[in-house]
Amino acid sequence: MHGSRHSPSKNPTRRVQLDIFHKLSTEIVVSVLSFLSWKDLLSVRKVSPYLQDASKTKSLWTSLFLHESKAKFNAPCLLRLELPMSMYSSGEIERILLRWKTSRSAWRRGEVQRRNIIRRPIAHAMAHLLKGGRWLLRLLVDGSLVCHDLDHPQDEAINIAAPVFSSLALSDNTAVAVMSVQELDDSPVLAARVAVLYSVAKKHAPTWSQDMHRVDIWSLTVALDDSTQPKGNLAAKRITSFPLPSEFQIAGKRSVTLLDNEIATNFSYALAPHGPVFLTVIDWTKPDGRSTSYPRRYVAGPTAKDAGRQGILVGNSLIFTRYQDTLFLISYARSQETNALPHRDCADGKRVWQGYTGLFAGQTSAPFFCTTSTRIVIQCHREIMGVIVKRDQAEATEVVQLMSLPSRNLLDQTHLGYHHAVFFPDRMDASTVALSFCWPDEKGNAVSVPFTSQHKILARSALNQTALCREHYFRVLFDEGSGRIITLSAMKGKLVRWETSPLA
Predict the structure, then answer these.
(1) Where is the F-box domain (predicted)?
(2) What tens digit of pLDDT does each residue of 252-274 get?
(3) Fewest CB within 10 A of the end CB: N or C in the chain?
(4) Spatial separation of the C-alpha atoms in residues 432 and 30, rounded to whole Å
(5) Cα–Cα nearest to 367, from 417, 299, 306
(6) How far apart are CA 92 and CA 84, in angstroms?
(7) Whole-angstrom Cα distance, residue 491 to residue 458?
(8) Other Cβ atoms closer than 10 A to 347
(9) Contact between 442 and 94 (Cβ < 8 Å)
(10) CA 257, CA 69: separation in Å to the nearest integer?
(11) Using an 8 Å Cβ cutoff, are 233 and 222 in contact?
């Protein structure tokens, strides 16, 4: 394929070679092409019309897509289709794969283009962009749950859950709503499970009711619509809902994670002195009815400094948490299930690993599930670090450096991906920066380049308003599979869609 650059008609030797190749059956040609990379398949198309047609065979692109989308020992599932593979043509699969490849290259060059601006009230408690970059899920401050179809940005938002909190509960700042999303990579269609926790301090809310103090578990799936082209619509169903004990208050805005049948969250126990915090695990399939007397595990309590920090479920009955420059893995495999309210010494989780970053550990990513490990990205002051929790050897967990930042990150909450992050330097004359990094068991180097868009992802003048440094006021999310970036600015009521891939 990489012979003379002359046309086959002017190169007798090459013309004879091609004639022999063209005499082979299509099945044999496709079998030979199946050993090529996606780049080589595109190059083959320049050789002859016959090979051009053969290189578009669906089985070739299906095989390449499956290889790239499956989790590996050093990479999670970042790329997926919304619907079963059989619903897509060869060209559609090729385009989705090439969109991912070109977006990764564009990210390392800082290339991004603004596509859509959606102006509407944006105030939200939390937001999550599902894989594929089409569906944006937002938990609003009043407890309602909505979803936006970013491929059709002018469509009305899909209302999943109605508001929970009254204006009175919102006005005294006692109402808290938090959300965690687990995407189900083994599902044949795009699917996710969502846990939403609602909490209102009973003694401060004259209109308090049990409906304001509960846990909802939702199932989200993409279902086929009536069109002939793969598109699908998002369908939501509440799986279960159960009350929280009135004595429990959610401790912090980022205090819940969901994994399979379990949720882990930080509760302050309102009846105890000074409201001590307990890191608690609940199997959400066990509560039944309106009773608060369901089993739960108190994994860490007020005697542990990390009890008040977000616990991230990483599988195998393990929770990852942190305190200042110290990282912990806590096992709750032998923790006792109880339906009693907590007391000071009831926590019985066991620390199985402890590590140090050497720097204050700030924000963390969601867990990334590889085939032999669970990985987490952490920003520690001016370092991006990674934690590798080995699936069958938790005590051998590693802390690795992924890249250094040129200065402090001005925003206290930004999105951390498996290979990418968005960085806001603390220098007022500096542009927003695209970060790319690799893990030690991958090939590649770290890159830090300013975004080259003619529009600012976040105008430097806006950073004079220190409130923007809070997640409620400005948020950036991105999907590593599609290269789509979303910025949400509450003060301007603006949601902006950006694309790194020219194929978007």
Answers:
(1) 18-64
(2) 767 799 999 999 998 888 655 45
(3) N
(4) 45
(5) 417
(6) 12
(7) 13
(8) 22
(9) no
(10) 24
(11) yes
Rounded to the nearest 10°, the torsion over CA 12, 18, 23, 28 is: 160
**CA–CA distance, 353 with 495 (Å, rounded to integer):** 41
User: Is this prediction's pTM over 0.70?
Assistant: yes
Which tens digit of pLDDT belongs to each residue from 402-460?
999 877 776 656 689 999 998 887 766 677 889 999 999 999 899 999 888 767 776 55
Give the DSSP per-residue string, 382-451.
TEEEEEEEETT-GGG-EEEEEEE-SS-BSSS---B-SSEEEE-BSSTTPPPEEEE---TTS----EEEE-
* Tokens 């059956």 -> residue: 25
CA-CA distance, 488 to 400, in Å (whole number)?
31
Measured CA to CA, the distance from residue 215 to residue 65 in angstroms comes to: 37
Q: Which amino acid is at 186?
A: D
Whats the size of the chain, residue-wise? 504
Written as one string, the DSSP assignment of 116-175 is: EEEES---EEEEEEPTTS-EEEEEETTS-EEEEETTSTTSPPEEEE---S-HHHHHTT-E
Assigned token pair, 9? 């008609």
Cα–Cα distance for residue pair 275/270, rounded to 1 Å: 5
Residue 13 to residue 170: CA distance in whole angstroms: 79
Q: CB 348: neighbour CB atoms within 10 A?
A: 15
| Residue 277 β-bridge partners | 268
CB atoms within 10 A of CB 457: 19
